[in-house]
Amino acid sequence: MDTMNRRNFLKLTTAATAAAASFSAGTAFAKDAAHVVVIGGGVGGATFAKYMKMYSPETKVTIVEKNKEYQRPYGSSEVVVGRLDMKDITISYDALKNKHGVNFVFDTVTGVDYDTREVKTAGGTTLKYDRLLVSPGVSFDYSQIPGMDSPEAQSKIVHGWDAGDQLLTLQKQLEAVPVDGTVVLIPPPNPYRCPPGPYERSGLIAQWFINRGDKNAKVIILDPKNGFTVDVTMLQAWNRLYGFNLPESFKGYTAEERATFKKYDKPGKIQWIPAAEGGRVVKIDADNKTVECEAGVFKADMINLIPPLKAGKIALDMGLADKSGWCPVDQKTFESTIHPNVHVIGDACIAGQMPKSGYAANSQAKVAALQIKALLAGQEPIEPAYQNTCYALAGRDDYGMFVADFFRLKNGVITRDDYPRYLPFNASDAQYRLSAVYLHAWMNSFTQDIFS
Strand 270-273 vs strand 218-222: parallel, antiparallel, or unpaired? Predict the structure, then answer.
């Protein structure tokens, strides 16, 4: 914010400024109650608000969120292949409001004054806070992909990585793929939201082709990376299910483990081209549906590009991010190292070795609630611990996998403990089926934990 005074950040330019309604302690709560304002009602913000009220019922908690219902990104790729409807991923805020006493302002944040500790919205509301928690999710950086910097190109090739109507666009595009057609899927570079997600979506689409009766349809993954979370189990599952041939460059297996993979005479329904074999994309032609990568040019019937990610736009506009595009925080309390009394959690923050996932945001939110409770009371923050679990399907609904991690703070950095993380190598079909059961059970219990 070198060129912008903090007091003038995103200042309202309409008459709403003068008419801004003050949402202060005297309007709805006891005057001595602390007020915590939350920007963003996704997994991180909603979890924090619920648990802040559970840990400290006397604290006022207000979420500012532009949408009156939440559409969960986790598991949303199943909408693309028709296993779920939009209503299945749409969640009400009613329990947070009526059961837990969380206040909501359904509006867009237009300004934050860090000196007076005020948040302003487009509708003219002013919220005074003692602590501000920001959980803004992610934004998408098309500038790194030549050919994708225009609104026209972005309307033709969508990511569907933030729920919303883009999922339905992808669904229609998939249904329009001709028999034995080709889908090109382009994952983002690290770091990004939901590390196994692009590969789960690839498997779901491959299985959709099988269910439709296609014999020669294929999904080609053009990857800027040489590996991904759950790759050891995912690639093994694809080898069993989709005629997948393991790339020679992949280093995730021993020679003995590689020897257990079946070799197919022709490319399978899923082909993964990692960076080492030319998977980095050079240019996309949205009109002609062609993708040029280091390995050559691929013609597609459908392209699903998940572009490089950054912190959510509001965090960028608020000056909470550094040159990396992500938000640096004290990893013990998640307080911004740029602006005091402001905490950033979830996908947007820099959290050591923790991934950008819904479970990570949920874990961070619970820690942040405890830390903010202590800070408001003038007490020392606790020594935290964190968890993460990511589930994914290989493609079939009965073939699941996971990564499970436990983290501690070491020298001020969130660091992964050294425990087994995945299914064992050469897991049985029964173990994959059981992981799928865990996945579906977790999806329900996780949503209940946050929103009920």
Answer: parallel
Cα atoms found within 13 Å of the Cα of residue 133, Cβ hemisphere only: 36
- At 29, list the tokens: 């709560």
pLDDT tens sequence across 321-362: 999 999 999 999 999 999 999 999 999 999 999 999 999 999
Q: What is the pLDDT of residues 67-100, one digit of tens each?
A: 999 999 999 999 999 999 999 999 999 999 999 9
188: CB partners within 8 A, 6+ apart: 198, 224, 306, 307, 308, 309
The answer to whether residues 364 and 343 touch, using CB atoms and an 8 Å cutoff, is: no
8 A C-beta contact, residue 239 and residue 246: yes
Q: How far apart are CA 222 and CA 205, in angstroms?
A: 15
Beta bridge partners of 186: 305
How would you class 435 by CB atoms within 10 Å of its CB: exposed for 0-12, middle for 13-18, buried for 19 or more? buried
Listed in sequence order, the residues at least 6 apart from 226 whose beta carbon sits closer than 8 Å to its beta carbon are 249, 250, 251, 274, 275, 276
Structure tokens, 427: 């897991």
CA distances to 86, 156, 171, 181 from 81, in Å:
12, 18, 6, 15
Q: Do 44 and 365 contact (CB within 8 A), yes or no?
A: yes
For the record, the structure tokens of 255 come out as: 């020679």
